[in-house]
Amino acid sequence: MSGYSLGKWSNGLAEWIEGDTAFLSVVFTWKLDEAFARASMLKAEGYKVRAGGPALFRGKSMLERVAEVGGDAPDAIARHNPMATTASRGCPVGCSFCIVPAMEGKTFTYLPDFPVRPVLTDNNLSALPADYQRHIIERYQMADVPLLDANSGFEPKTFDGGVFERWAPINQGVWRFAYDETREREDVRRVCKMLRDRGVSSRKIQVYVLIGNEPEAECLQRVRDVIAWGGEPYAQPIMKLNASTRDPWVRYDWGSGQRLRQMQRWTNTHRWRSTEWADYNPSAKALRSDFYDTQHGLFAEMAA
């Protein structure tokens, strides 16, 4: 199993050339201006240009002036991270803040011959039929490739003991799942308890806590829940699906995107270990900018 790693993710824009055609894969809508500039340059150099990706799914873009938009580029995920792969598309949950149901559907599309790589990006592993979960796991075992990161993870509602026992033999990374809304509280509590009862350490229970989609008190309570239940919270501010800049979507009583970023920083830098949110002073030291985690394909916050 030597030679495998988490790889590095592109910063949301991947580019490659095959023959006389240049390809652009754009993940984030705030990358569209940069993609347009690259497409214009490549076209001026004489290439045919094709562009696709989640950022282009929700409507027309100025990229259409310089590129053929749409279509499918097989295994485009590997252009964003050569260690990444996908065994299924779609998700049955249908979260309003997620582009997956609209782009890939609420029923699963199976990719049974997926290339086996150590970063698995499927949207919802625990909701897949048990036999297909076993198929994925067997492919990893037969290829002798370690699963270092189940990147998008498991859904609390369908993540039970059977799912854990199924994936435990190959999952060498953290156990990822999300706590997006207060109504998921009992399912998240159950999953955290199940993992701790099976000897999984807090460090390996990573719970994505969406913040900004509910009032501040509710979001803070979800962060605190994860800590109390023996996991490690990882806060992600909500953003509009068509955001032209990488700024949080300010709703409810949050007041500003800065407030959301401060809670993100307090959570993700583990300031909660020593300081209550009410006592947190983000100006105690000069704040440093957030950054893109090229190993996990996520935006994080640098410690001040």
Salient structural properties:
globular; 8 helices; 14 strands; alpha/beta; three-stranded parallel sheet; four-stranded mixed sheet
Structure summary:
With 304 residues, this protein is of the alpha/beta class.
Structural class: alpha/beta
Shape: globular
Number of strands: 14
Q: Kindly report how far apart the N and C termini lie.
A: 37 Å
Please indicate the percent range of residues in DSSP E strands (runs of 2 or more). 15-25%
Low-confidence stretches: none
- Report the major sheet: 4 strands, mixed
Pattern of helices and strands: EEHEEHEEHEEHEHEHEHEHEE
Fraction of residues in helix: 25-40%
Global mean pLDDT: 91
What strand order characterises the main sheet? 1-2-3-4
Any overview of this molecule?
With 304 residues, the protein is of the alpha/beta class. 27% of the residues lie in helices and 18% in strands. A four-stranded mixed sheet has the order 1-2-3-4, with helices on one face. The chain starts with 12 loop residues before the first strand and ends with a strand.
Topology, please?
Layout: E1 13-18, E2 21-26, H1 32-44, E3 48-52, E4 68-69, H2 77-80, E5 84-85, E6 88-89, H3 100-104, E7 109-110, E8 119-120, H4 130-143, E9 149-150, H5 161-167, E10 175-179, H6 185-197, E11 205-211, H7 216-228, E12 232-237, H8 257-268, E13 290-293, E14 298-301
Parallel strand pairs: 2-3, 3-4, 5-8, 8-9, 10-11, 11-12
Antiparallel strand pairs: 1-2, 6-7, 13-14
